[in-house]
Amino acid sequence: MSALIFKAACVQMRSGADEKANIAAMNELVREAAGKGAAYVQTPEMTGLVQRSRKELFSQISPDSHNPVFATASELAGELGIWLHVGSTAVLTGEQRAANRAALFSPSGERVASYDKIHMFDVDLDNGESWRESAIYDAGDAAVVVNGPGAPLGLAICYDLRFPDLFRTQALAGAEMLTCPACFTRQTGEAHWHALLRARAIENGAYIAAAAQGGVHEDGRETYGHSLVYDPWGRLVGELAHDEPGVLICDIDPGLVQATRRKIPNLANERDFSVTIEEAADTKRRAS
Q: Which positions are catalytic?
């Protein structure tokens, strides 16, 4: 593994209902990040389109083979000589069906990995806020770890953050930098964003980088922002402490991952175990 420190960037966006406008915003912010020395640049979930209306969504999205978000990202990566991670965009997969798909492009412009969001955000929150991603998106079924700019990367998207086994599986497979680009709702972000990201970093002895959508979007949703990076010890390396579009640049030191895992070798110490469910005697009496 390379021990060279490299610069990573999280691009914070406020994608709207016009895919072309969102691609233009991505282009500008990615160029800004590269201009500040980033070797790896990550954009948020749903970079290409944040659109709650099913009809409007399917009127704009394209199959993977000619998706304009991925095509632009490939060109940018090759031109700027960077690793460009599109946090995700909606990709047409069939009649009224889509995938929430991430893609990683190398400095040559080649796509070296894709990942479809595994966990669907099907929830009912307070104040009537309700989401049913599975009504539109087909869930992925494969975790992905890929060699990136200076460390193996684990790919995840937004709601995946609440499923620690995914990140543990990636860490055990060699991931030293975890990722979780997101479009977190303000309600859940204010409650859990920082705590969950920090926990995933600490329990796996890994960096975690999370580029976010932020602010009030054209479709009416409000997202939390606060793109950030935690290091393997759980220290906040950097944060955009707001929900405005912008670029966060942080140094990533793969050597710190190895040092942290030597201090607390929980990945090496993990053991298989079984679960036994026992009923207390007083519970049985009450039941009878």
A: 45, 117, 158
